Amino acid sequence: MSSELSNAYIASRGFKRMVNNAMSSQTELVLKPIGVVKTTAIGDEVRDKTRTSQLVIKEDLTAALDGIDGFSHFFVLFWLHKTSADQRKLLKVHPRRRKDLPLLGIFATRTMTRPNPVGLTLVELIKVEGNVLTVRGLDAFDGTPVLDIKPFDSWDTAQAAKVPEWWIKLKNEKEQKS
């Protein structure tokens, strides 16, 4: 075996060992919610980006909100607590449960049925009152545990992002309804 091939093989085995070690040492993660969602939206109403809702952050974390009002938008990471254990095992879905769209791996979709049902939504900050943030555009149900919030800035924009044809179809349909 040439030294180049030998080094590549050793590096490959080392990488696999590193990944396996990382995976086995992280078999369980403990996440502690920082707050909870309060909303009157039910069912598909949560998809209405004009609706407002509240993020009630734990009172002992109120100081962590200092300066958040300097941002117009931020990302909310939340636990999709209404997904079942069976849904978390699904690996493929039709986007928006529509059979006219392709069957895709869940990581190529925005489905809530995921091995780790973490939601991510960009919201607009309306106001801050103590430990309560009023936001517009959050697609989460009442009682949803909030895991984290992160301010949006220009670094979060992709100038040349591409999306597949089925995504463009959904976007066009949505615009036609508006």
Summarize the structure in words.
The protein is α+β, with helices and mostly antiparallel strands. Among the domains are: 1-29; 31-81 and 117-153, YaeB-like (Elongation Factor Tu (Ef-tu), domain 3, Beta Barrel). It is 20% helix and 25% strand. The chain has two helices and eight strands; from the N terminus they run H-E-E-E-E-E-E-E-E-H. The strands form two sheets. Strands 1-2-7-6-3-8 form a six-stranded antiparallel barrel. A hairpin with a 2-residue loop joins strand 6 and strand 7 (132-136). The longest helix has 23 residues, at 3-25. The chain is globular. 13% of the residues are buried. The model has no long low-confidence stretch (mean pLDDT 88).
Summarize the model shown.
The chain has helices at residues 3-25, 165-177; strands at residues 35-38, 52-57, 73-79, 92-93, 104-105, 118-129, 132-136, 145-151. The protein is an alpha+beta fold and 178 residues long.
Strand order of the biggest β-sheet: 1-2-7-6-3-8
Q: What is the helical fraction, as a range of percent?
A: 10-25%
CATH class of the domain at 31-81 and 117-153: Mainly Beta
In CATH terms, what is the fold-level topology of the domain at 31-81 and 117-153? Answer: Elongation Factor Tu (Ef-tu), domain 3
